Amino acid sequence: MPSDNPERQRDADRTRAEILDVSTHEFADQGYAGARVNEIAAKTRTTKRMIYYYFGSKEGLYVAVLERAYSVIRAQEQELDVEHLDPVEALRQLAELTFDHHESHPDFIRLVSIENVHRAEHLLKSSVLPGLANPALDVASRILARGRADGRFRDDIDALDVHMLISSFCVFRTANRYTFNAIFDRDLLDPGRREHYRKMLGELVIDYLTVT
After folding, report:
1. Residues 132 and 75: beta-carbon distance below 8 Å
2. For the whole model, what pTM was predicted?
3. Which residues of 130-147 are buried (b: 16+ CB within 10 A; e: fewer)?
4. Class of residue 10 by CB neighbours under 10 A (exposed 0-12, middle 13-18, buried 19+)
5. pLDDT value of position 4
6. What's the rounded Cα separation, in Å, for the pair 158 and 21?
7. Is the pLDDT of residue 110 over 80?
8. β-sheet bridge partners, residue 210
């Protein structure tokens, strides 16, 4: 909440960030229905009343958690400096950035899975998230444009196709880790195979897009 007192504003920002940190884990671990605001308050330096002051309701808190989770990966995509790179290498770096983010943010994958169970009911109520799609596509669009200009990339694939292709590999690897391991006895997040999968993703995307 805005404040004329800078120190009070910093305290409010810290409190809000702490609530979101704890809430992210609680919603990812327990789901929307299973997470309890009382439990979140008990794990922070605040109260249920204060949580409602900042976020309005449990649903408001959950939407804020989703917004922040998506904002992190979108910010990283925007900061990716690929304009000076060869289009093939730029595309590889975009794929690897997503790979690294999804591996290091398993709660994000769980939140996405949970929100799909709810048919994006809460996501659709966010006024922030619709604008977060553009950064994800802008970087890929610029890379594709440069690759097409020199005749290296096919022209029947758009940025959303690329985003879906990269995300599907990265989400599957994290979301299906335990069931995949139970069936095939292979941990997809085994550190010993990490670089193998990271390289595999880049090669899959590049091979699919490259004109032969």
Report:
1. no
2. 0.92
3. eebeebbbebbbebbebb
4. exposed
5. 63
6. 35
7. yes
8. 153
